[in-house]
Amino acid sequence: MEQKKVLVGISGGVDSSVSCALLKDKGYAVSAVFLRFLKGVEKNKKALNDARVICNILDIPLIVIDARTEFEKTVIGYFFDDYAQGKTPNPCVFCNEKMKFKLLFETAKKRGIELMATGHYARIKKSKIGGKMNYRLFPGSDEKKDQAYFLYRLGQEQLSRTIFPLGEYQKVDVRRLAEKFQLPVFDKDDSQDVCFMANGKLEEFLRRKIKLKKGKTVDMDGRVLGEHRGLSLYTIGQRKGIEIGGKGPYFVISKDLEKNTLIVTNDLSHPASTQKKIEVEDVVWVDGVSPKLPLAVFVRTRYHNLLVRAIIKDSKNQRICLLEFAVPQKAVSPGQSVVFYGKNKRILGGGIIK
């Protein structure tokens, strides 16, 4: 019987490496692909070397795709554009849709490989609805690793051909498996923050493309409290780094781009500190079909935020919807993804906070 072929996206980290090992152990004909996204970043070179070492140990072929120019234009360009508009983007969501899964599926198709896999902690369950197979997306069993949040823009065609080998595993067990398979990355640190910011310093990175203009920091009554370093450096709900003395702590309520003014408060009970309703744009549904609205759901307005109850209401535009929270929410930031969850934390879809 011919082995099923699978193409695994490998990053050089423990999760994708163990995914390769598990699939090979289950009898798949595994090939790995390393997507080279970053220019001149030392940790990216090390990641590629680690991927090569892993593939040699597992005796699987490695494909390297140079996507640095496209990544800089598509993902980093979007990152700068959103920050310039006063938003707080989520590049991981955008990268998964526009780069990672797109390139992995294109590569698999060119090589006649039907299945694709990644090291995300997520699960896919399938069932027949009206005689047609439906693929449902869920978080992984490790509650600390809800990486399905970053995958809500995947559709039925992609999910039908995707495997998430780590979906039922806890992170600690994945590291133990790496040791069992004798993979030298078993104790490698998890990647943190935004991958393309080598030193993690947002201000330094943004100054490459955005002209940051200082302006006034005011309270809700318009009283000047200090000076901000550029509106792009602040996000709704932020407390640290506002650099205001007096009766704090202060946190960001809003940003007036027209007046170049940062608006803050030290009153946690102020009505303007929370949002009861928001508008969500660029909405997508995992099933590919917009459900009947209004729809009661749970939502997550930022990665690691708690799930909260909300109702999705129609706005007479399939790609835009109105979202009303059961309880007003703090720190709801334009540019971030809001993800819709159904029964048993099933990912229904999501969109971008407008």
Give the total of domains. Answer: 3
Which regions contain 5 or more consecutive residues with pLDDT less than 50? none
Percent range of helical residues: 10-25%
Order of helices and strands: EHEHEHHEEEHEHHEEEEEEEEEE
Structural class: alpha/beta
Shape: globular
pLDDT average, as an integer?
93
CATH topology of the largest domain: Rossmann fold
Using the coordinates above, name the CATH class of the largest domain. Alpha Beta
User: What's the CATH H-level superfamily name of the largest domain?
Assistant: HUPs
Give the distance, in angstroms, between the N- and C-terminal Cα atoms: 52 Å
Extended strand count: 17
Tally of helical segments? 7
Based on the structure given, which CATH architecture of the largest domain is correct? 3-Layer(aba) Sandwich
Question: What would your notes on this structure say?
Answer:
The protein is α/β, with parallel strands linked by helices and 354 residues long. It has three domains: 5-180, Rossmann fold; 212-268, Adenine nucleotide alpha hydrolases-like domains (SH3 type barrels, Roll); 274-353, Beta Barrel (Elongation Factor Tu (Ef-tu), domain 3), CATH 2.40.30. It is built from seven helices and 17 strands. The protein has helices at 14-25, 42-58, 68-84, 91-110, 156-160, 171-180, 202-206; strands at 5-9, 29-36, 62-66, 115-117, 122-129, 132-139, 162-163, 215-218, 224-228, 251-256, 261-265, 274-285, 295-300, 308-317, 320-330, 337-341, 347-353. A six-stranded antiparallel barrel has the order 12-15-14-13-16-17. Strands 3-2-1-4-7 form a five-stranded parallel sheet, with helices on both faces. A four-stranded mixed sheet has the order 9-8-11-10, with no helix packed on it. The longest helix is centred in the N-terminal third of the chain and has 20 residues, at 91-110. The protein starts with a strand and ends with a strand. 36% of the residues are buried.
